[in-house]
Amino acid sequence: xxxxxxxxxxxxxxxxxxxxxxxxxxxxxxxxxxxxxxxxxxxxxxxxxxxxxxxxxxxxxxxxxxxxxxxxxxxxxxxxxxxxxxxxxxxxxxxxxxxxxxxxxxxxxxxxxxxxxxxxxxxxxxxxxxxxxxxxxxxxxxxxxxxxxxxxxxxxxxxxxxxxxxxxxxxxxxxxxxxxxxxxxxxxxxxxxxxxxxxxxxxxxxxxxxxxxxxxxxxxxxxxx
Amino acid sequence: xxxxxxxxxxxxxxxxxxxxxxxxxxxxxxxxxxxxxxxxxxxxxxxxxx
Amino acid sequence: xxxxxxxxxxxxxxxxxxxxxxxxxxxxxxxxxxxxxxxxxxxxxxxxxxxxxxxxxxxxxxxxxxxxxxxxxxxxxxxxxxxxxxxxxxxxxxxxxxxxxxxxxxxxxxxxxxxxxxxxxxxxxxxxxxxxxxxxxxxxxxxxxxxxxxxxxxxxxxxxxxxxxxxxxxxxxxxxxxxxxxxxxxxxxxxxxxxxxxxxxxxxxxxxxxxxxxxxxxxxxxxxxxxxxxxx
Amino acid sequence: xxxxxxxxxxxxxxxxxxxxxxxxxxxxxxxxxxxxxxxxxxxxxxxxxxxxxxxxxxxxxxxxxxxxxxxxxxxxxxxxxxxxxxxxxxxxxxxxxxxxxxxxxxxxxxxxxxxxxxxxxxxxxxxxxxxxxxxxxxxxxxxxxxxxxxxxxxxxxxxxxxxxxxxxxxxxxxxxxxxxxxxxxxxxxxxxxxxxxxxxxxxxxxxxxxxxxxxxxxxxxxxxxxx
Lengths: 225, 50, 232, 227
Hints:
Chain B is an all-alpha fold. Chain B has one helix at residues 6-49. Chain C contains nine helices and nine strands. Chain D is mainly α. Chain D contains eight helices and no strands. Chain D has helices spanning 2-22, 24-43, 55-76, 83-89, 94-123, 132-156, 163-190, 200-225. The two termini of chain D are 25 Å apart. The mean pLDDT of chain D is 91. The interface between A and B is medium-sized, with 39 and 30 residues.
């Protein structure tokens, strides 16, 4: 059942991606100042959104874990954070390439990029903490609290860095004014396949976690014999 | 379309997917570890059965 | 009202069941010795009774209140594996601290009184760091008894103690029983525990395998209970 | 509520007494802060006029690094003899335990800052006392932010074997907004101007950070301590 969902999701994501690539490379009007590189935005931005969606899912599941003490929520929280980190890494590196072309430097202390980097460090700390705790219930409890702290911190980080950076002159992403609505549509359209892929990855990771739990249980049973 | 920086756009696209692929590779490695643990268990059980 | 009621208490460490559906009651004035091998779940059970750990399933009531309730915790005295006193504070300061935490009316008086009852009255101002092992253990006993708890939870109380501390503890426990206090202790040292116990429980792989009165047969042959109920 | 306050004070007094008796963390933290102040003088020209412009950043990095030594110890000092279990089993609430420990840490961190701030003034030739009371307020707010996060994470990691390695990497990213606010405000005040206008946004952020994370820590600490 779950298998079929995963295949269905991946297939749908692939079809959508091909269609989106065709539209964004052939149909969409060019951005006057930047040339082709501008089209990175169609992956760069939805990747960030997907990452935050993952972190948000982890936040919700952490609260649910603390309320219900069911290790399944802990597993979802962990899987969503891992997948979120992969998307966040995609966002960061594509942002660097974009910055290299537009501003000539690999790293700008752009508020969004900096916030994402801090987020990445926060959640990398979450995974690091998980590795350091052996006992599963304790691990779930501690990392749920950390996940809640991290997620509450995210908006504060974002606004503080925004204010920090607006005090210094900053390069702008596109030449001021509103972005064309066809670009916006493309951003959202390309978000859908990324979400689907994230869901599939989370499901795979969850299945592995379940298999690990079963193996551990069988091993304990075998040793008890 | 405007073809300035086309290669860099390609790199940008590729890099997002590379991050995801790297994660998938880590998933595959974990899958392999699970498989090994399972085989070890099976062997353990067979030894016990004898 | 029963002193302790445990109902279907289960605790998991991940998927590993440390306790499975443990139910029992202890009436006021009873002394229950919980026997069991290492890793059977005795410490986990005592931690749950003391409110240090929450059960995954089931409930515990100490005189009708859940163990994390402030009122319930005031009635409980815990003596765990560690001595739970501060090395860098004096014996008197340690006892006064716990007297304050337990909301005693006069922590200083209680501290002085218990220093005397454990034979530490002359060492009261000395830092615990400078104490001998036996003195530290007696101070730990004083800390657990300080607020005259109606329920005493002791985890392997006789294991690490020296002779004098054992004597002090046994006198105090007998007195506590005479006063109608309730005692639950986990132990694998059968003789000392069985002498005091009025009731016996046996935990085997997280399950309560036996629960009953302490009989003369157990005193005569402490291994008896393990042979009959130990391997399930 | 008076019970909560009394319990917190008892815990704070206990922590302060045992720390002042051994002075282990305090000595380490003060000397570390002096060492960092010295090291920074090699990173740039200490007599330059711009020093004033990043004085806030410099000071708060010193406070954050040196403070970690004190915050690290906060719950770890309960580990020998299993004292933590005795505290959790006692009738005080987890929140009161946390509040007491945080208060003790707060005072210890302020003590370290009280030593390193004048030394900073001497080393880098900076008149920092023009806005003394406002500066003191900002130091208190920023230090409380560090204390809340540091104490909470000390409780989180208390049973882990890699505690000392783990804590800095977990704590600093969470603190970033508070540190940034404190840096902005401190630079402004050390520059001799009173607070007002644009910088007030940083004051608001710092206060909000303090309130949000104090509330979060107080409500979650019981779950952290009782397994």
